[in-house]
Fold this sequence. Notes:
The chain has 225 residues and is mostly helical. It is 76% helix and 0% strand. Residues 51, 54-55, 58, 143-144, 146-147, 214, 217 line the site of 5-(aminomethyl)-2-methylpyrimidin-4-amine (NSP). Residues 16-222 form the Thiaminase-2/PQQC domain. One of its GO terms (biological process) is thiamine biosynthetic process.
Amino acid sequence: xxxxxxxxxxxxxxxxxxxxxxxxxxxxxxxxxxxxxxxxxxxxxxxxxxxxxxxxxxxxxxxxxxxxxxxxxxxxxxxxxxxxxxxxxxxxxxxxxxxxxxxxxxxxxxxxxxxxxxxxxxxxxxxxxxxxxxxxxxxxxxxxxxxxxxxxxxxxxxxxxxxxxxxxxxxxxxxxxxxxxxxxxxxxxxxxxxxxxxxxxxxxxxxxxxxxxxxxxxxxxxxxx
Length: 225
Ligand SMILES: Cc1ncc(CN)c(N)n1
């Protein structure tokens, strides 16, 4: 339409403003080492065990998001997108158990490391009813997209990912998971567009925190903290 102002969606703006941090989370040396075939398998096993603990804590966060969506969303289809995330998590938990037994990782004896505990504590803070749906769904998008982008890159042109790790990368790097992340991004952008300044600032701060926690999580997997 002539003269109509085309606003850049909020998430795209943030991705430009925080490009360096986003790249640190989605092109981390840990996932880059999977992509170039040099990954240290003890680091991979550490990631596997720690991520299983994280994913278990992620389930109640997503449950709290479903509740917020049901109460606060202006669009019925949001809940279906989030429910798709619950289904993916259900598969993920079974996958972690199978994968752990394949790699001889004893899940029952994993002790959560500091970076993981802090990230799980942060997730718990987002479960509070005081955290608005817009803020929580934006956090959810950020958490999911880091894995999507990181693992899709391990499968993209020029990758030397070993056959035994390709399945792991496909779990988050597949096209359906990519589409699901775009749907979450659309929900977040739609909500942010209608939000007052204070909610927008809160959501931006949470996205930054998520990206920082994700970097710490990959660092921990490499045995760096
Ligand atoms: C730390 C972390 N971040 C994100 C995801 C993707 N659900 C995950 N499994 N673990």
